[in-house]
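Page 47, continued from p. 46.
Same chain as before, 475 aa.
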Amino acid sequence: MRIDLKRVIVGRPLPADDHEAQRLTKAAGLAVFGPDAVSNTAFGAETLLRVLVPVAAMAALSYVVPLTVAILVMLAFLGLSYAQMINAYPRGGGTYAVCGRQMGSLAAEVAGSALLVDYTLTVTVSVAVATRTTTSAVTGLRGRETLICVGLIWILAVINLRGIRESKRVAMVPAYTYVAVVAGLVVWGLLRSASGGLGRLPVDQAQLRAATDGGRLVTGVTAVYVLRAFAAGTVALSGVEAISNGVPTFEQPRRRNARITLAWTLGLLGSTLLGVAILTARLRPTLSTTETVLSTLGAAVFGRNSMLYILLQAATMLILLFAANTGFSDFPRITAVIAGDGRLPRPLADRGERQVFSKAILLAAGLSSGLVLGFGSDVEVLASLWAVALLLTFTMSQLGMAAHHVRERKRGWRVSIAVNALGATATTLSLGVLMVTTFGDGAWLLAIAVPTLVLTFRAFARRSREPDDNLTTAR
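Result:
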């Protein structure tokens, strides 16, 4: 009997009218879109420390909570903006759609470029951190990170090629398990700390010397380093834009369901991010080159050999993988919208046999694998690239919504513009700081990728108009 390998991997073809059956409920939407945002709590505090520890050693821990609070203020502004976007642009496309309609083709092309880079890096960084989480607990796998990353990327690609229902079923268990376990970690850790049962962790001098370049500090924490840490820490806000891009995937009433899912996501992200930051400041773990901060906290609170610690590591790894799944969900959707506008090859907008944008999923997997191979699964460099792309996306979304309010002038438009203006100011300042301070470490790639994509969009747009021009000439 002949075995059809494609059917085994991807599954049987689905009828075209099955697309409606692929719609997401609020709970499933939180599991599909939420992991990208909620999983950022696994490395939010660590991102800040990797900027500040080299210049302040253990004193850097005193900045974690204030900087996290500042990041949550930005989260509030972004949440209001994306809720407005869901109302105004329920057909999806998010930042790309609002910029195109309100600011013209160039703004749309810049926004579209930033989104494609953002979602590619969502896949890449999430998988890289998931791999580091795994090697934190299973030391025998260290040294094989790049191979593990590439393998995980293609496993996720296959899951997404099977369709939305398949991916949401797989995603719901680790998403909710992670939230429960991290909440338990924070509550139990803070209770033990307050009661005196758990004190500050001993400083690992060897790891501290490695993190501070052999014990040599720079000039101390200046305003530039605080701003750079804040800008780098905004990667913890990744995913808040995903729901505005995927409104069409929700069940009716789509706008309401998408807004509620966004509110749930913001609440979980904000509370968990702040809780982990407070626990980090209380226990003062030493930044390690081989173990994540969350792993160190889990070992201290639960015990390294306990089942809860193992569950924490497993749930963290899985939610990070399904944060990458958000990239696989939204990269194809944005690609299809751009291709539908004639700015990318039309086949990228075609649904495959399983009613998903299969060609775009394969493209996302290929690009993410290329980044892993090119940067060797270096989480710090990839996270810096991701933060730059993310801040550019946030800035374009704020500017686009400000332009929308100026034109529409609906009730409360002045307050809405003030929210967008403050948000755009914060994201633009952070973008400038991070671009300058990390340019030599890899941010230069964004300076090449975005203009290249803009030129590519324009080239395809000209080609898509040629048949009409020729037809007009013939007439």
